[in-house]
Write a structure and sequence with these properties.
Layout lengths: L8 H26 L1 H39 L18 H12 L2 H6 L2 H11 L5 H13 L1 H21 L5 H8 L6 H42 L5 H22 L1 H26 L2 H24 L15 H4 L1 H22 L5 H9 L1 H23 L3 H5 L6 H9 L3 H32 L6 H21 L2 H8 L3 H26 L1
């Protein structure tokens, strides 16, 4: 464990970086909440311009990370352990997988489980394409291997330098150590501090934006399940208050208790929901669609990994801006969450071999995501086809509508809607308490940050989420959530290069 941050010059620099991060967060929050239309237009314009001009580089970067992760797992490096030679994992395999999955995807799967396959199917249908299987394959691509490869390599860099070199579990540690000798030491330290600063801002805005959107979905779900429709803003703020109390209580108890228990509960609830929807929905149609989509996905993976997906319009020409709005935005979104998810995965992975770590992080959540979308998206697509596009029409109202409209048509519909609401709420708690823990680690450099640090970050997350809910604009939430992604892409590249240098040194020692 690192020394307390106020006892070393490096930690004093970390304190200054945290203060700078808080200042940046305050200024950006003031701009977004005070002038949401202007701020959203500016942020979206910057993001859109970069995606349009260099989005294919982000795709190639994610593909390179996927190939690199596979290469490390298959190489002699795969048997190396994150820690001592005889060290064993702190958490059992089920709890480890549950925690990394809950932190990495969580409420997004509930939000988009039905909406995204329906949206892609509708878009493809306008061009006369065989839409259902292709829509499912595209959804799998967005939520699958590339996303988890980004998380895996970021986490591995942090975990390697912590468990093998004894450095703090932060992006700055690997960058400062891994680039030393190539760049002047003061520049290495400055780059590391900048990485932590951007990481703090990315975590705060990313989690706050996601929580705001999830609370909106939860409000819709409660209304669908119970018929109770109090004033929307009153219910949303009440849900946020309850959420804040829950996630700060969980964060205070630490990873081994609250976070682990909630993650296990998430996994159990998700499996119960999947089983119920598979039985009560359209199991034969969903299974057939999944098999067809699997062939489409496998055949298209090499092409989609090297060039953005081309979604044709009704005239057969590429649909302008589609890849930027979907595929490339997803990649930017995953990078925005990397300071949070990568650091958290690194924290819970000590004692695992590199092979187990990489295969576990990249493959298992991907397979679960594919199953999730097959059951929810496949069942909804089958119902939509039988009901002459009823769910597709509901997309025009809001992305949250089709999910609960479909559930209402199933046996035990209200009970299923309540189960979805419960799962979504627990996912939000897990994401938020993990974020408090990670922000505490980034700001103090400690593997187990103190209670005041976690509560302070929890209050900041709550305040920013409340501001976003009062603005009640999904586009603002989306712009806020990915605000830190673009600058952090540079630091992620520095982390990966530092890791490769360290692994090359390890190979030379073993030779």
């Amino acid at each position: 464990m690192s020394e307390p941050f106020n006892q070393t010059p490096a930690s004093a620099g970390r304190r200054h970086a945290t203060q700078a991060a808080l200042a940046i967060i305050a200024l950006l929050a003031l701009a977004v909440l005070g002038w949401p239309d202007t701020a959203t237009a500016v942020l979206s314009g910057i993001t859109g311009a970069i995606v349009d001009t260099a989005g294919w580089l982000v795709l190639l970067f994610a593909t390179a990370l996927l190939l690199l992760g596979c290469a490390i797992a298959a190489s002699p490096l795969g048997h190396l352990r994150l820690g001592g030679r005889d060290e064993r994992p702190e958490f059992g395999m089920p709890s480890w997988l549950a925690m990394l999955f809950a932190a990495g995807m969580g409420s997004g799967l509930v939000f988009w489980g039905v909406a995204e396959p329906l949206t892609h199917s509708r878009t493809l249908a306008t061009a006369g394409a065989d839409s259902a299987a292709a829509a499912m394959a595209i959804t799998w691509f967005h939520w699958g291997l590339h996303a988890w490869a980004i998380y895996a390599l970021a986490a591995l860099s942090i975990a390697w330098f912590h468990t093998r070199r004894g450095l703090p579990e932060t992006p700055s540690a690997g960058i400062a150590a891994g680039w030393r000798g190539w760049l002047p030491a003061p520049l290495c330290d400055a780059l590391g501090r900048a990485a932590d600063l951007v990481g703090v801002a990315a975590v705060v805005f990313g989690v706050a934006g996601a929580l705001a959107n999830s609370i909106i979905l939860l409000r819709v779900g409660i209304a669908a399940a119970t018929g109770w429709t109090p004033p929307g803003m009153v219910l949303q703020l009440a849900l946020l208050t309850l959420l804040a109390a829950a996630f700060m209580t969980s964060a205070v108890t630490g990873i081994s208790h609250g976070i682990r228990w909630l993650s296990n509960l998430n996994l159990v609830a998700a499996l119960v929901l999947l089983l119920a929807l598979l039985v009560l929905g359209a199991p034969a149609a969903a299974s057939a669609l999944g098999l067809e989509a699997l062939g489409t996905w496998l055949a298209a993976m090499p092409r989609w990994s090297l060039a953005p997906i081309s979604m044709d319009g009704a005239d057969g020409l590429p649909r302008e801006g589609w890849a930027g709005d979907w595929t490339l935005t997803y990649l930017v979104w995953w990078i925005a969450w990397t300071p949070f998810v990568g650091l958290f995965i690194a924290r819970i992975s000590r004692g695992r071999t590199l092979r187990t770590f990489l295969l576990g992080v990249m493959l298992v959540p991907t397979l679960f995501s594919m199953l999730w979308f097959t059951v929810l998206g496949g069942g909804a697509l089958a119902y939509d086809a039988a009901q002459d596009g009823r769910l597709t029409a509901a997309l025009s109202d809001h992305y949250t509508r089709p999910l609960f409209l479909w559930l209402d048509a199933l046996p035990l519909g209200p009970a299923l809607a309540l189960l979805v609401c419960g799962l979504l709420f627990v996912f939000m708690i897990t994401s938020a308490d993990s974020a408090c823990f990670v922000l505490g680690m980034l700001s103090t450099g400690r593997a187990d940050p103190g209670t005041p640090s976690k509560l302070g970050w929890g209050l900041l997350l709550t305040a920013l989420t409340a501001g976003l809910l009062l603005r009640n604009d999904v586009d603002v939430n989306k712009a806020v959530a990915i605000i830190g992604a673009l600058p952090f892409t540079v630091f992620l590249l520095l982390q990966v290069i530092a890791l490769l240098r360290a692994l090359r040194t390890e190979l030379r020692r073993a030779a």
